[in-house]
């Protein structure tokens, strides 16, 4: 597979990238939506996090912005391919499954570091205007995952390039990054608490933490794990969104009485 990827033409790489990113976005997004809107509630498993309704036209906007991100991610495959063509990076075609496993674990950790750094930068005064389109989804959906400004998409989309120039990865290790990244991202944006009984700091409470980031705007800049937010003291308290949600419930209660 490594040799086949390197042998592709530039146009073939970009077309394959578009099909890949578009396909996994629709597959993971639709599966998570079905799971959280139909299957899990019917089984009595988990609970929604934010009871407020979606903004008018939100899903249409998310699909439109996600389409631009998919275009950038897909055509952007030309850059890691270009590193290989120039000889600045190499793939290991003979990596053992043990090496691939270790590489994937390292990339999972790197993904969290890379995401925190870029996400924190996007909340600075200089760059926040490029992050605001994503935060228009206060109540998130799985389709919020790729709903970015193009600048944000470019910042987050270069995650595999720095590791490629310092280590010869297996093709399968690098290919796993968009898969686990999108999977965790869909979970984080699902507005659903899959494991209500675990603690707020648990790995399985990532959807709770990212829900608070969208509800409160600042804090909880990490991806799946908490180590970067703990290190830089940007972790929100578990009850950070309580005032907003209580205010909504009170308005709903008063509206029902009227």
Automatic annotation (TrEMBL):
<dbReference type="GO" id="GO:0005506">
    <property type="term" value="F:iron ion binding"/>
</dbReference>
<keyword id="KW-0812">Transmembrane</keyword>
<dbReference type="GO" id="GO:0016491">
    <property type="term" value="F:oxidoreductase activity"/>
</dbReference>
<keyword id="KW-0472">Membrane</keyword>
<protein>
    <submittedName>
        <fullName>Desaturase</fullName>
    </submittedName>
</protein>
<keyword id="KW-1133">Transmembrane helix</keyword>
<feature type="domain" description="Fatty acid hydroxylase">
    <location>
        <begin position="105"/>
        <end position="234"/>
    </location>
</feature>
<dbReference type="GO" id="GO:0016020">
    <property type="term" value="C:membrane"/>
</dbReference>
<feature type="transmembrane region" description="Helical">
    <location>
        <begin position="68"/>
        <end position="88"/>
    </location>
</feature>
<feature type="transmembrane region" description="Helical">
    <location>
        <begin position="12"/>
        <end position="35"/>
    </location>
</feature>
<dbReference type="InterPro" id="IPR050307">
    <property type="entry name" value="Sterol_Desaturase_Related"/>
</dbReference>
<dbReference type="InterPro" id="IPR006694">
    <property type="entry name" value="Fatty_acid_hydroxylase"/>
</dbReference>
<dbReference type="GO" id="GO:0008610">
    <property type="term" value="P:lipid biosynthetic process"/>
</dbReference>
<dbReference type="Pfam" id="PF04116">
    <property type="entry name" value="FA_hydroxylase"/>
</dbReference>
<feature type="transmembrane region" description="Helical">
    <location>
        <begin position="169"/>
        <end position="187"/>
    </location>
</feature>
